[in-house]
Amino acid sequence: MSTFENVTIVKAANVYFDGKVTSRTIKFADGSTKSLGLMQPGEYEFGTAKREIMEIMAGELEVLLPGASEWQKISGGESFEVLANASFKVNVKSVTDYCCAYLDD
Fold first, then answer.
1. DSSP secondary structure of the chain
2. pLDDT tens digits for 50-102?
3. What distance in Å separates the CA atoms of residue 74 and residue 91, rounded to the nearest whole number?
4. Domain-wise residue ranges, the chain
5. What are the C-alpha distances in Å from 10 to residues 31, 81, 98?
6. How far apart are the C-alpha atoms of 44 and 41, rounded to whole Å?
7. Coiled coil located at which positions (predicted)?
8. Sign of CA dihedral 82, 95, 59, 33
9. pTM of this prediction exceeds 0.85
10. Which CATH class is domain 7-40+49-59+75-86+95-103?
11. CA angle, corner 57, sides to 93 and 43, nearest 5?
């Protein structure tokens, strides 16, 4: 899906890691939420409250998923999933455009 229709966008930015990671929250009529953002090169650690699917639109990163010992390379057009109440690391290699879906299980 390249566009979202009939949504509410929260104007205030979500800013992390001194502005190196930013996003905007999108709320859908069915109650679901996603965020659209950009990550600058660097290494970051995130925590999840809900299950997340991170879709990489453009760019390149490596992700270290919970319980994994090896980094996994992810490029534009690919995605990865992280379970709720977990933490994961990303090593962003180039400016990365992403869409993150927050899922209720």
1. -----SEEE-SSPEEEGGGTEEEEEEEETTS-EEEEEEE-SEEEEEE-SSEEEEEEEEEEEEEE-TT-SS-EEEETT-EEEE-SS-EEEEEEEEEEEEEEEEE--
2. 999 999 999 999 999 999 999 999 999 999 999 999 999 999 999 999 999 99
3. 10
4. 7-40+49-59+75-86+95-103
5. 14, 24, 17
6. 9
7. none
8. positive
9. yes
10. mainly beta
11. 25
Whether the CB-CB separation of 16 and 26 falls below 8 Å is answered with no
Q: Please give the structure tokens belonging to residue 61.
A: 């990163």
Tokens of 104: 């209720």
